[in-house]
Amino acid sequence: MTLTPQPLHKFTFGLWTVGNPGRDPFGEPTRKPLEPVYTVQKLAELGAYGVNFHDNDLVPAGASASERDRIVREFKAALAEHGLVVPMATTNLFADPVFKDGAFTSADARVRAYALQKTMAALDLGAELGAETYVFWGGREGAEVDAGGKLLEGLERFRDCLNFLAEYSGSQGYGFRFALEPKPNEPRGDLYLPTVGSALGFIATLDQPERFGVNPEFAHETMAGLSFPHALAQALDAGKLFHVDLNDQKPGRFDQDLRFGAENLKGAFFTVKLLEDSEYSGPRHFDAHALRTEDEAGVWAFAAGCMKTYLILKEKVRQFHEDAEIQGLIASYKVQDERLETMSRSFSKENAEALRSTSFDLDALRQRGPGLEQLDQLTVELLLGVR
Amino acid sequence: MTLTPQPLHKFTFGLWTVGNPGRDPFGEPTRKPLEPVYTVQKLAELGAYGVNFHDNDLVPAGASASERDRIVREFKAALAEHGLVVPMATTNLFADPVFKDGAFTSADARVRAYALQKTMAALDLGAELGAETYVFWGGREGAEVDAGGKLLEGLERFRDCLNFLAEYSGSQGYGFRFALEPKPNEPRGDLYLPTVGSALGFIATLDQPERFGVNPEFAHETMAGLSFPHALAQALDAGKLFHVDLNDQKPGRFDQDLRFGAENLKGAFFTVKLLEDSEYSGPRHFDAHALRTEDEAGVWAFAAGCMKTYLILKEKVRQFHEDAEIQGLIASYKVQDERLETMSRSFSKENAEALRSTSFDLDALRQRGPGLEQLDQLTVELLLGVR
Amino acid sequence: MTLTPQPLHKFTFGLWTVGNPGRDPFGEPTRKPLEPVYTVQKLAELGAYGVNFHDNDLVPAGASASERDRIVREFKAALAEHGLVVPMATTNLFADPVFKDGAFTSADARVRAYALQKTMAALDLGAELGAETYVFWGGREGAEVDAGGKLLEGLERFRDCLNFLAEYSGSQGYGFRFALEPKPNEPRGDLYLPTVGSALGFIATLDQPERFGVNPEFAHETMAGLSFPHALAQALDAGKLFHVDLNDQKPGRFDQDLRFGAENLKGAFFTVKLLEDSEYSGPRHFDAHALRTEDEAGVWAFAAGCMKTYLILKEKVRQFHEDAEIQGLIASYKVQDERLETMSRSFSKENAEALRSTSFDLDALRQRGPGLEQLDQLTVELLLGVR
Amino acid sequence: MTLTPQPLHKFTFGLWTVGNPGRDPFGEPTRKPLEPVYTVQKLAELGAYGVNFHDNDLVPAGASASERDRIVREFKAALAEHGLVVPMATTNLFADPVFKDGAFTSADARVRAYALQKTMAALDLGAELGAETYVFWGGREGAEVDAGGKLLEGLERFRDCLNFLAEYSGSQGYGFRFALEPKPNEPRGDLYLPTVGSALGFIATLDQPERFGVNPEFAHETMAGLSFPHALAQALDAGKLFHVDLNDQKPGRFDQDLRFGAENLKGAFFTVKLLEDSEYSGPRHFDAHALRTEDEAGVWAFAAGCMKTYLILKEKVRQFHEDAEIQGLIASYKVQDERLETMSRSFSKENAEALRSTSFDLDALRQRGPGLEQLDQLTVELLLGVR
User: Which of A109, C121, C129, C351 is the most exposed place for a label (fewest CB within 10 A)?
Assistant: First the structure.
């Protein structure tokens, strides 16, 4: 059992995650910002694969062209020196008060245009640094006041902007895959595209749906009390898992961005299981931050903890597959019947007729025990390390 | 202001709604079941347009063919006598213990086959009674134990069954439009297709997506703390609002199915506003039930209340549109700029270049007040009847 | 119906409420801070009764003694000029990173001592400005990590500090009444004393319970999905309603501090009804802030809206009491039986024996309809202004 | 490490827990009821200590005196034969429609009187079977409609009944300790006494508060998104932990009553830690039930799983105390300062003066890292069995 993170594990962090200064609505920052170049070095030491950023995480708003170029040059040098990549990039469309009532969905045409302009520049920056995935998190795309009339218009505008940017990316030859990141609320009262499902549904209305997928985040689905593994499974089922944000969260409260595995070990286990069992080969991105109580040492303990817990759970996934008792319970849980499955799998008049005339022993089906309590108990014991 | 319900308002109820006997996990029924024929008569008296049912609401499980035919004949006669229609039908795939671990997504091939068989019969029944919309609510399609291995298989099986049934409907010439009804949890720990968005996303993976839409329910989105008007807007935006279930609910708790408008007046107002302002012409279905405390008189007070509150809110929608101060605030909230909008609306190299070279007065945009507090306050005053 | 706020209505605001600059975890401030003296003038113009503050809302941290005295002198002059009072004061024990892991419940003895020192000074300041109520909101008293060992120690330390400060207040002759303000979470993962009930329970363990009551906040109970009117009722029932914080909130999410009545009109109505029907004569304090989207005009619209909605609802309370149909339904809902009530009200062997030998017509009790759907519908119609 | 349950571990179950037939609002029972005598035998085989019941779990409503006596005699014989005790008893005041709008808090004086009569009889039954703790769960004490006027009256009536029954118990020489069991909602929209804190606060208003404590339930606090370990700690701190209900639950949804440890392993760990580290010597009662999917074998797997997981976690508590690295982190987390602690612990004019004149190195306190991320990570690793 190797629990030492290595680049092959594809663990990534955002500059904004380990660099989070611990500010919150009720208090001032508790930590100093971290320099991007220093962050690259530290993440490499810890065994990470890559680092992601919003445009302004790397290049401060208002930087001159030469400042920008110097920053990018130094950052690239650091990446090269430490062997890290930039698999994903994104735009900060939420911190500046200009976006206080939305960026792509603002009621003000000037803000929408500025958001497009800023995102084009961020796509350029991301492409320059080799990012292959572009994440859209509409942090201010939402409302507290529905009387403003954006319930339908907001979605139209969001779509127009996404269509525009997908074409822009194509026209520049960037080849980005775009991943929509849903969130139910915070910082807006209600965010548009609140869940992974909403994003999947919205993609079906875009001009080039094949270029769009989702970036599900553990904490975001959990805030709405939804199961993250279930949401992840729907994204995988739809062939739309383009990126993933791992962290943790207590349901029904403010966005906590806790260390991966800090709260919901079972949910974390099934998350790792889906990622490892599926064809997903992308980054395992930890979109989380150290508790506001912590100093810099706490930040690195946090980052190391995210990765180590993932590796522990990955090992438990292997053990789960090799556990004969568990696999036996799963096998007996799934009752196969080739004749019935042939009839049911796809429609034909013959199949429908055959199904219609089949008799079922309903009492036997009602009384059958699927053994799920026992299976769940063994899973818990496996997680607790006593199997 | 007419507050008397009439068939033209398209208010519908399910047999299971007014007929709910008030049983809950902690207590026995408090009311006797209502006869379907009697229910038709009472709903007609109250001004309803139609009545919906699950197969077994009308025809008890295990009824003989001749019993079924007699029941259907008498029910049709009652509909004709009282001028009610059956716009929607559905199948009960949740009450019988045979479905305790799922119907279409059961791990047992026999249960899945039986669920198909039962639904084909229910489609036949619905068609016979003239229903045009068929609702799929997967009440048992979900899990408490993810170790069973259905995270991905469940979705595949669900899809196979929906594809099968859509073809069956076509082959019979029924012409049903199918509406998926999402719900986050209860009776299962986590239901598949938990939100309106999930259902929209899932439809995109079906063989005949054009035949499928959604049946959003106020209470179901609210259980997950999501905004029902926002979900409704996404369904409308996608052209997928095939049916709607109106009721009320406190967030983050058991499924209450409260009287429409009983809890969240603002949410109810924006719901009515979306339905009345949009092209939606289908039934306004109240999928709710009287409180368990009530007797039959309370049931009819509940049903009348649902409709009356809808009509009050519909009148307030009219007033909202005619309120000059409110409309003035909305107009000033939406800042138009033809030049920028032309550049932003659709991509071209020229537009992108023009956008890139535009300068924005960001400070002015940051400082601009959108007037949303005032707009929201006026909306509240309108709701409270003091404008 | 007078909807113009006047001092006799006892509406108060905190300096931190109208002065909230619109900063949140994802964005920079959108508004400039307001000067305390200017705030006093504006609140007086709007009809407020008083203004409250945390020590550092008025006197910046680190101010010299002479600066402090000047600030206080000017603030007092403004209060006198505009006829406002300071009914309540409190201490900011959350913004400074020194309190990042708690103030009274910090694991660090130095932080606890400093919190006491700071609170003593704030009590002095509050007394100097005539405040009669002192609110304790333990904004950082909580934890994300229970392994630290504070589950029990935290409560002990909290109690020690409250006992200390109550004695300090007495020794200085201040005569403060102390009101504990509960909140379930945010900014900490879990706050100690999460609900009004928790605070009431904790008071029973203090040395001088009679000096302590609660300051229930609408948004805080609502965050946990609890009914604010129910919590308010328990505080009144216990004789412990020492102060009240009015605002609004969607359940199960980040602390929104919405305009009073902005979200839950029914909850707001029953809140006003309890306050107006009971003996509570204290301030109606709006602990809320304008949406982050707003400019200063939006701030005053917000403040005016809080007060106006309260007055509208107060008028509806009057109407509720005078509505014969509503009062008739309530009267028939409450079934009195003098003989049984005499037996039940207080224990005696005779009463117990009499009760034991009483026969009840259980079927009649089971079938009786209490008329609650109709009563609730009439209440909704009253709220909507159509009665 | 012994993971075999034995009576010394004081594990108890209710007849209604293992006997739960799997009925829910959407479906019929999936299991047959279990005979009490058989349940006693099975629980003894599994290593339980005791069995609890509501009056009607043992004696059906309407049983004649001789039937009752026969049932009790046979049940006692089974207890004696299998070595089980009955540590707790309670009354079913929720299943019969007579209680549909409350028992002790009904608006109908006849219902209140009948609830008292039924509870006196249940106290007699509990005493006859040797129960020492009596639990009050007010399953129907709450409301959906606050217009009925019970917000304050409900609490008065609840108090009157509890005072009455405490005196009745004393007068009969029963010596019961009464434990109030809070729950936020379900089956009522809002239950009175929604949280452990509410119950503690209410006890302070009773005539004989010393006879009353609480029966916190893991699932019930969790439904409101509150931390169960925090609530348990407050009960212990107040000396009021008279009983405890162990199970599991996802926050913000219907009452799931999951197997202990099935969902929240960290919460379960800190629960066991508090119980084992404190002076609590009462039963560890599992108020849960097998999933509705299960047959009888699943029921016993469920019951065995509850106990085994408790014992695994108890072993981990021991390991936590013996883990030098963890204990070292805790020790360095807690900064002691004898001089400051002496000043702060209790008020005197001298202490206040000394505190006032103390200088603090605030910058050092702000920068200090408490090491909580590392401590939490080690706790997670301990739980996962890799330490």
Answer: C121
